[in-house]
Write a structure and sequence with these properties.
single chain; alpha/beta; Conserved hypothetical protein from pyrococcus furiosus pfu- 392566-001, ParB domain; six-stranded mixed beta sheet; 4 helices; 21% helix; globular
Length: 103
């Protein structure tokens, strides 16, 4: 198993972060097996594209919500890491648990 789970959509509330906002979130090392993806489908042409991050962030984006880590953006980068036998990945993690205590 590469990821902890595969989900359809985002179970957490909208965080309204822009690309510029994400850039201020420092990346940290995360084990692939701790991530739940929020996308069920993969575009193979993006997986094989060397320039897939040319216009985007170098680091995938994840959201921590209710103790779980959800991979919001960067599925192709995470899967490429897994195919290279890497167990970890540098990810920008937005901790919604710290920003919005559970109700």
């Amino acid at each position: 198993m590469i990821f902890k789970a595969v989900a359809e959509g985002r179970p957490y509330p909208d965080h309204e972060l822009s690309a510029r906002d994400w850039a201020s979130v420092p990346p940290r090392t995360v084990r692939l097996s701790e991530l739940t993806t929020t996308k069920r489908e993969l575009a193979l042409d993006h997986l094989l594209d060397d320039d897939s991050t040319f216009y985007g962030d170098l680091f995938p984006h994840a959201v921590q919500w209710r103790g779980e880590l959800y991979l919001e953006d960067g599925l192709h980068r995470a899967l490429r890491a897994a195919l290279q036998n890497r167990q970890t990945l540098h990810v920008r993690v937005l901790d919604l648990d710290a920003l919005r205590p559970p109700t």
